[in-house]
Amino acid sequence: MNKKILKIRILPRWIIIVIDTLILSFASCLAYLLRFNFNYAELNNFHVGKGIIILILSGLFGILFTKSYAGIVRYTGLMDGKRLLFASFIGGLIAATSNYIHFYYFGKIIFPLLIIVFTYLTSAVILYSYRLLVKQIFTAILFSEKNKEVVAIYGTDQTSMLVRQIIENENLSNKKVAAFFDERKQTVGKVINGVKVFDPNRDFLKAVATLGIKEVVLADKNLSVERKNRIVDQCLKTNLKIRTIPPVENWIRGNLSTNQIKEINIEDLLGRESIKLENYNVREEIKGKKVLITGAAGSIGSELVRQVLFYHPNSILLLDQAESPLFEIEEELKIKKGTIPIYTIVADITNYERVENVFNEYEPEIVFHAAAYKHVPMMERNVVEAVNCNVLGTKILADLSIKFNVEKFVMISTDKAVNPTNVMGASKQIAEKYVQSLNFYLSETNPEATKFITTRFGNVLGSNGSVIPLFKKQIKQGGPITVTHPEITRYFMTIPEACQLVLEACAMGKGGEIFVFDMGKSIKIADLAEKMIKLSGFEVNKDIEIKFTGLREGEKLYEELLSNKENTLPTYHHKIMIAKNHLVNYKVIREQVQNLINVVEDKDELKIVGIMKYIVPEFISNSSKFEILDEKRINK
Q1: For 480-494, what is each residue's pLDDT tens digit?
Q2: Cα–Cα distance measured from residue 12 to residue 72, given in angstroms and rounded to the nearest whole number
Q3: DSSP string, 254-287
Q4: Does residue 143 have a pLDDT over 60?
Q5: Are residues 541 and 507 part of one domain?
Q6: CA nearest neighbour of 81 among 132, 21, 18
Q7: Could you tell me which residue, 556 or 330, shows the higher pLDDT?
Q8: DSSP letter (8 states) at residue 389
Q9: 52-92 pLDDT tens trace
Q10: 547-565 pLDDT, tens per residue?
């Protein structure tokens, strides 16, 4: 019986119209009988047959006009009730008009006014009630099916109620909500529309076992990241699926659908609480300015472009040597940019003449320098390119910024520049030393010159070539997931957070600072891999293997945001600090950098790295062919 009902899709509209007509007939007859207290003799004084026909036809016109018959009955909601009420109002208006016309021409009404009111109020209530009844019957039948997947919703706010409604209305064939979870004492133990609220700290396992819960939907958007991680860990231990809903601003046309209730991403568990930065300061800094962003096609650069656009600059210059990604961000911005001019420039930052022409033509006032080579093992094998891009490219941009009177130059560095163990990190520290010493040299000789600011942070979630996209790809391919070392850890932050820091540093910086971001707790990569496997519905080392491959060239186990020689100073935001480090004389570092650049032309990697180690004494290679240079230095 139930299976036959499940096969019913949508009743033909003519059947709905027939049912609605029968209800109108019943309501009109009942109205006459009640109005005259079942006194049939008194009924004969009125043309009852004619009156009932007019009442039915008038009501039917209202139903057809409002198309209240067109709704899917088992999905009846509040809007359907409003439509039926409006249909009854139209029917009553037509009936009253007919009554008035009849009185005008024949001097006698067809039916008393009370009959009109009673007929259409009664019919509206019955029409809506029977639709709700059908909906409840369908729901009861479907929920009685043994193969229904039992769902619990974490949260009891309005969004949670909406999620329940969507799951039940749009997934009647295979879902049912059997429990709510909420930590608040005032809601625990209550029953909401037949569904009980449980305390997740005390009753989670009991509820899962008793109700047969297979899936948990995180609907409470106020959950902290720490709490969300605890919930996910609980679910993974009991082999439950975990899904979540997108932020309200990402709902399609302001509405949530089941297609948007997605499996939770690892990014949702690695982010931290949103950081409210002083965006007023950023707006004052950027509004009306010409902004140049190097590396504009990369992960950080492209997000910087999007955020800078929000603050209404005079124009934005997108500079990158990657043609195709630059084309993609240009196409994306065609819709968003409004009237703000955006110029895409294909250029290599190591080409002095080309970059000089860009500065001369566009006259940027603020430069965000995000262009860099960042992959540690690759740069360990391509030393010349690492130095050319990260050191020479930065020097060219810095020198041209002074020449063309740029107001602020913001360099984006990395935690790998701290106590570097690889060529990439050392090249970034040399670039840091150069721009910072240049700033202090200018502050003494020309206080009105360009202000140089550095931001330093760790890995960003989802950036090109980062570990999470790699793990996702490996899981999709069936494994194994490759992790270099069981104990390796990394800091993570989201790309928008990183770019907020960069913009805030621009507004906050007076010149010469290295801004360091509070990255929270470092995360063990092996634990990250294990959690990603479980979230994908697989078992670790059974479905997907974790394979340890050994540290890569130049890689270290633990990243640091500060060197042993650095301390921090607080800023007005508790998450942003200034690294207090030892300043290098500009003339000295300028000579050292120029010497390094000259040696690069010889393409002798050992000689190049040897000079880098001289400039950065704390640069000790790890798992690299350049360890031989450290041995020689120690033996001396």
Answers
A1: 889 888 888 877 777
A2: 10
A3: TB--GGG-EEPPHHHHH--S-----HHHHHHHHT
A4: no
A5: yes
A6: 132
A7: 330
A8: I
A9: 888 888 888 888 887 776 766 656 667 777 888 888 888 88
A10: 888 887 767 677 665 555 5
Concatenated DSSP letters of 324-357: HHHHHHHHHHHHH-TTS-EEEEE--TT-HHHHHH
H/E stretch holding 172 reads none
How many other C-beta atoms are found inside a 10 Å radius of the C-beta of residue 425?
27
Query: Could you tell me the residue range of the domain that residue 54 belongs to?
Result: 2-142
Angle at 423 between CA 628 and CA 595, to 5 degrees: 90
Strands, sheet with 191-192, edge to edge from the N-terminal-most edge strand: 191-192, 195-198, 175-181, 149-154, 213-218, 241-244, 262-263
Same domain, 469 and 386: yes
For residue 241, the 8-state DSSP code is E
* Alpha helix segments (H runs only) across 407-494: 423-445, 467-476
Q: CB 369: neighbour CB atoms within 10 A?
A: 27
Q: Indicate whether 273 belongs to any domain.
A: no
Q: Say what the pLDDT of residue 327 is.
A: 92
Q: Of 209, 240, 264, which closes a domain?
A: 264
Number of domains in the chain: 3
Per-residue model confidence (pLDDT) at position 299? 87
Shared domain for 438 and 480, answered yes or no, is yes
Instruction: Look up 416 and say whether it is catalytic.
Output: yes
Using only C-alpha atoms, what is the Rg of the chain? 35
Residue 6 has pLDDT above 50, yes or no: no
Tally of CB atoms within 10 A around 536? 15
Residue 109 has pLDDT above 70, yes or no: yes
DSSP string of 521-546, one letter each residue: S-EEHHHHHHHHHHHTT--BTTTB-E
More confident residue, 130 or 476: 476
Would you tell me how many other CB atoms lie within 10 Å of the CB of residue 636?
5
Residue 635 lies in a domain: no
Mean pLDDT (whole number) for 508-525: 80
Of the candidates 434, 362, 442, the one whose C-alpha atom is nearest the C-alpha of residue 402 is 442
Cβ neighbours of residue 582 closer than 8 Å, sequence gap 6 or more: 565
**Verdict on whether the full-model pTM lies above 0.85:** no
Report the candidate in 528, 526, 530, 538 with the shortest Cα–Cα distance to residue 476: 538
- 223 and 298, same domain (yes or no): no
Q: Which residues, 6+ apart, have CB-to-CB distance to 8 below 8 Å?
A: none
How many C-beta atoms lie closer than 10 Å to residue 584's C-beta?
Answer: 18
Task: Give the model's pLDDT for residue 5.
Answer: 46
Catalytic pick from 290, 395, 416, 575?
416
The residue to which tokens 């439950």 are assigned? 240
> Can you tell me the distance from the alpha carbon of 257 to that of 245, in angstroms, rounded to the nearest whole number?
9
Beta bridge partners of 153: 180, 217
Q: How far apart are CA 219 and CA 223, in angstroms?
A: 9
User: 3-state SS of the chain: helix, strand, coil percent to 5?
Assistant: 50, 15, 35
Contacts with 121 (C-beta within 8 Å, 6 or more apart), sequence order: 88
